[in-house]
Amino acid sequence: MTSSNQSDSVGSTLGSLGAMTACTLGAGIAGGVLYMAVQRMNRARAASRRLSELIAAATSAGEARIVITGATSGVGEELTRAFSQHSSVSLLLGCRNAERGQRVVEGITRRGGQARLAPLDCLDLGSVKRFAGEASAFLDGGADGLRLLLNNAGVMRAPEDASADGCDATWATNFLAPAVIAETVAANTRLRERALMLWVALRAGPLSERGTRLAATTPGMVDTQLGRHSVRPQLWPLTKPLRWLLLRSPAEGAVAACAAGLQPPEGGGPGGEGEAGWYMDGERTLEHLPTQRALSERPLAEAVCAWVGRVCGEK
């Protein structure tokens, strides 16, 4: 065999090995992606079943009245779908987009459910206060049963031109609006996350004495529209496959968001500090805010609560 033939043979062998390696690697990646996809679908189905179980147990007696903000997409949409399947539940949905909100309400009523729409623009303090008053009246009515306020609406990296009565849009949506709504309801019936936790930490005790259980919950990283401002608008749809594969499903986020309101931590949680003021991820306790935040950051917590009180008192 000549030197040229030997070189051709070696090159052919190396080429075949390279092709086999590439095929094996490709098959391994495809198998891994398929496994992750199956796991994701199984988690979503399990979360949907668990959410239905929690709702059924919590709404089995009396008339349940639930208020949900941000009800037209993501976790809020999943919460709305799950609660609306139970005949004893009446829903009040806070939505910024009235057209989309009305379609959701009409779909629920066609299926025999009970729901109505209330406009809510978290960037407009007047709208927030009007919604808070309507939510308070709604929760105060009807026969005895579960009363639950789910402050779900949120935003991440809002556009710089978004304004909220002179207040940062992310702060207004993720902290001020839910705090004002919760304070109004209770009175009658990430940077921003820290402020919300401090507010919960200081207000949980006094509100629990009046029969209101207050908790902060995290749905985790969920495949929703929350991160749509994080990339260029034209690129956002292209992220859907990765978001679907790597992030929690809306059903998982829904369980995480509302489990604390449907059942208290078992035994009051670790340490037995009681049921008020928990920071939770679904049915898993992450932190007891009154003992871990209010004590270490009390001056700041008091300042946050005082500011919310002033905002609630403004006409």
From TrEMBL:
Gene3D superfamilies to which the protein is assigned, alphabetical: NAD(P)-binding Rossmann-like Domain (3.40.50.720)
Transmembrane segments: 17-38
Keyword DNA damage attached: no
Organism domain of life: Eukaryota
Keyword line: Membrane, Oxidoreductase, Transmembrane, Transmembrane helix
GO molecular-function terms, A-Z: oxidoreductase activity
Taxonomic source organism: Emiliania huxleyi (strain CCMP1516)
InterPro entries referenced in this protein's UniProt entry, alphabetically: NAD(P)-bd_dom_sf (IPR036291), SDR_fam (IPR002347)
The protein's name in its UniProt record: Uncharacterized protein
